[in-house]
Write a structure and sequence with these properties.
The complex is a heterodimer of chains A (252) and B (110). By secondary structure, chain A is an alpha+beta fold. Chain A has a domain at 128-237: Protein of unknown function DUF881 (Alpha-Beta Plaits). Helices cover 52% and strands 19% of the residues of chain A. Chain A contains seven helices and eight strands; from the N terminus they run H-H-H-H-E-H-E-E-E-E-E-E-H-H-E. Chain A has a five-stranded antiparallel sheet. In chain A, helix 5 (145-157) runs antiparallel to helix 6. Chain B has one domain (22-108). Chain B has five helices and no strands. Classes of the chains: A alpha+beta (252), B mainly alpha (110). At the A-B interface, helix 1, helix 2 and helix 3 of A face helix 1, helix 3, helix 4 and helix 5 of B.
Chain lengths: 252, 110
Amino acid sequence: MPDDDARRASTVAPPKGRSVRDLGRALVRPSTSHVLIAVVLLVFGVGVGTQLSTKATDDTFATARRADLIQLLDTATGETRRLEAEIAQLKATRDKLQSGVDSAKVAQTEAKNRLDSLAILNGTAPATGSGIRVVVYDPEQKVTGSTLLDAIEEFRDAGAEVIEINDSVRVVASTWFAGKNGELIVDGTSITRPIVIDVIGDGHALEEAARFRGGLVSQVSQMGGSVTITQQTSVSVTATKALPTNKYARPA
Amino acid sequence: MIAILALLIGIALGIWLEPALPTGLATYLPIMIVAALDALFGALRAWFDGNFSDRVFAISFFSNVLIAALIVFIGDQIGVGSQLSTAVVVVLGIRIFTNAAAIRRAIFHA
């Protein structure tokens, strides 16, 4: 090899040495040895040119080794498999979360409905709906708490959902009635005459509950009073009751 | 001058004609080119040292190219082709740098 030869020559014999000027002179003065060099360089040039054009036209995989290609393929396949597994996992997580959201929504709606009905039942929320307005005229102040309670019970039997007296007292499960010397007290509130009872429920059934023989109307008539009943499509009950906090009872 | 013209003509021929290389040889062409480059730099260095011989240059050129290709070919046969081609490129690269350093010293005296 030329460089090895050259190194040996430079260490053994004093270097003859040439400069760039010598190179230029040699280039412009052709000799027979140049022909051989030219042939070798031509071969080299063809190789370089071929490789350049191959690189330019073909993609990088055209000249790659089979082992490299197989490894590339393996890597790509493995990556694909890994990503597919990840996709499946993420999809499962998404489905789980979605169903969780759905069931949570259903539970929330359910709880809201229960809350609404319980609020109406407990009298903690105002209510509106079709029903009747009963006005009891009692000039001799003979209507007692028990009369009123009987009437309320009859309304309840007839399916009353919300009952309110004098636009100020909401009748709930714990409501109590009392009366003395013509004074009427319901849940601690004194009731003035005429007594107005708003009832939400089926209007016809409620009216029948008041008008039947021995019911509210006939009782009040016997006491020298009168009762008017009007069915209304919209009875609005605005009186509410504070929710009592239970001192002893706990949900079981 | 003839040599440089021949080099340019060769590159032009290679690009324009795109000689159809056998696919088996295509993977060895880059290695062969690196080996040829090594031979070229070696020749240039020898010329500057004053002991250049066209016969030695031609023989070393072709033997370099053949040996480089042969080493990688054997490597391919025994399954370490890519590693061996890397090794050949590294070794030839080192030699090219060494020769380039000698040429630089001859030209710039530094």
